[in-house]
Amino acid sequence: MKVEFAPINIPLKRRMQTVAVLQWIFSFLLLAEFCCGLFVILILGRFWFLAVLYLLWLYLDWETPSTGGRRSQWVRGWTVWKYFREYFPIHLIKTSDLNPSYNYLLGFHPHGVLVAGAFGNFCTGPSFKNLFPGLTPYLHIMPIWFSCPFFREYVMSAGMVSASKESVSYVLNNEGGGHASVIVIGGAEESLNAHPGSLTLNILKRKGFIKMALKHGAHLVPVFSFGENELFKQVANPKGSWLRNVQEKLQKKMGFALPLFHARGIFQYSFGLIPYRQPIHTVVGSPIHVKQNLNPTTEEIEQLHALYLQKLRQLFEEHKRNYGIPEHKSLVFE
C-alpha cells in the first residue's frame, strides 16, 4: 500500500484541529480504560486512601447521572472543542423554532461510528444555545460509562447523562419546560451499519422513546446528521457474515458494539484512526406536538411512531440535495 504523507507546510490552525480530534479519539476510545487503571493503581499503591475517599464520593453521587448530571460550562467551552468542530467542520442547522416553554425529545440519526455530530453540537460550543435560546440539551449515553471512576465526572461535565428510563424521565419532567433530551435512537447496534454512503437506520423496533415522549408530553423532534457515516471506513461486515455475527453477539453481551473502523493518520492520509475531514451538517427538524398520556396504548404508540418515521423521512428528503445525497437514495428503516 502506498502511503500518502501530509505536506510539511500545513497551516498551524489545521494542525491544531488535528490535535483536537486526536484528543477526542483518545477520550472516546481509551480514556475510560485509563481512568479505571489509574483507580486500580491508587488502590494498590501508597495513596490507597484517595481511592477510598473517591469510593465514598461515588456512593454518595451515584444517582447524579440519572438526575440531570453535573455540567460545566467551562469544560463545554474549552478552546479545544472549537478546533474539534472546525476540523470536519460541524454545523447545526435549524429548520423551526422550539418554544422553550415545552420539553423536547430529540431523536438523533444516524449513530455513525463515534457520534461526532451529537457530541460536537450538543456537548460543546454555543451553537445550540444561540439557535434555540432557553433550551438546555442533555445527551443521553449508555449507563455503563457512569460506573467508570473519574471518567464519569468528565463526561458529565460535558452535559452527558445516563440513557436509563429514570434519567430521561428526570429531564423531560421539568415543569417549566426548557429541557431537550437528545437520544441516539439507533444505539450501538446501528454503528455496525456506519459505512460511507449507508442510510440504514435501526428504528422499526425502537419505540421506547415514543412511549417516554407520550408519558411526559414531550414534543418529538427528528434530527438527521448528514455526513456522520462518512467519517470512517469500516471493515466489510454484511449481515450474516461471521464478523457481523461475532459483533452482534458481543454487542448483546456487553451492551456496546465494536465496529472495526479506520480512516487516516496524524502525519499521513492512508491509514489510522483519525476521522476524515468530511463536513457534518446536523439538521434539527420541526417538532411533532405530543399530548401527555400517562398510560398510552400499544396502538397510540404505534401511531406516533409511524408519524415520527414519516417526519424523519420528510426531513431527510427535503435536505439531502443540499448535502450531496443522490436523488435516488432514500432512508432504509430496519
Automatic annotation (TrEMBL):
GO CC terms: endoplasmic reticulum membrane
Pfam families from the UniProt entry: DAGAT (PF03982)
Main location, first listed in the record: endoplasmic reticulum
Family statement: Belongs to the diacylglycerol acyltransferase family.
InterPro entries assigned to the protein according to its UniProt record, in alphabetical order: DAGAT
Organism of provenance: Columba livia (Rock dove)
UniProt-listed Enzyme Commission number(s): 2.3.1.-
Pathway listed: Glycerolipid metabolism; triacylglycerol biosynthesis; Lipid metabolism
Membrane topology: Multi-pass membrane protein
GO molecular function: 2-acylglycerol O-acyltransferase activity; diacylglycerol O-acyltransferase activity
Transmembrane segments: 21-41
Domain of life, source organism: Eukaryota
Enzymatic reactions: a 2-acylglycerol + an acyl-CoA = a 1,2-diacylglycerol + CoA; a 2-acylglycerol + an acyl-CoA = a 1,2-diacyl-sn-glycerol + CoA; a 1-acylglycerol + an acyl-CoA = a 1,3-diacylglycerol + CoA; a 1-acyl-sn-glycerol + an acyl-CoA = a 1,3-diacyl-sn-glycerol + CoA
Keywords noted in UniProt: Acyltransferase, Endoplasmic reticulum, Glycerol metabolism, Glycoprotein, Lipid biosynthesis, Lipid metabolism, Membrane, Transferase, Transmembrane, Transmembrane helix
Compartments, record wording: Endoplasmic reticulum membrane
Name of the protein described by the UniProt record: Acyltransferase
GO process terms (BP): diacylglycerol biosynthetic process; glycerol metabolic process; triglyceride biosynthetic process
Matching CDD domains: LPLAT_MGAT-like (cd07987)
